[in-house]
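Supplementary Methods. Inverse-folding protocol.

Structures were first reduced to a discrete structure-token string of length 110. This string, shown here, constituted the complete conditioning input.
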């Protein structure tokens, strides 16, 4: 049994998008992204873990856990949203609220 190689002819069917970044800007975006994105992802995961600990507390009968961990988890997961509204994830320039694409570097906001 072997899988036939079709050579990616279907990829061409997708409409080519107009590039919004210069090569240099794109490199800068890639260089800047991981730091902030890692932090945002870590905070979101951390928030989910804290809420999970709180729920675990309800299940196991430790009613102090949900009181402490669920609000903490919600707070931690809300923080990246604040970061996202305030600054561009790529170039860290200030953004208007609900601005989906940075006006300065053109990076889409998570
Ligand atoms: Zn930007």
């Amino acid at each position: 049994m072997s899988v036939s190689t079709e050579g990616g002819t279907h990829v061409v069917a997708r409409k080519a998008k107009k590039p919004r970044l210069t090569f240099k800007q794109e490199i800068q975006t890639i260089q800047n992204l991981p730091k902030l994105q890692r932090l945002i992802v870590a905070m979101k995961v951390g928030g989910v873990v804290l809420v999970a600990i709180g729920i675990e507390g309800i299940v196991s009968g430790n009613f102090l856990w949900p009181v402490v961990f669920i609000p903490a988890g919600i707070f931690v997961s809300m923080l990246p949203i604040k970061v996202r509204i305030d600054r561009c994830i790529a170039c860290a320039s200030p953004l208007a609220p609900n601005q989906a694409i940075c006006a300065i570097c053109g990076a889409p906001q998570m």
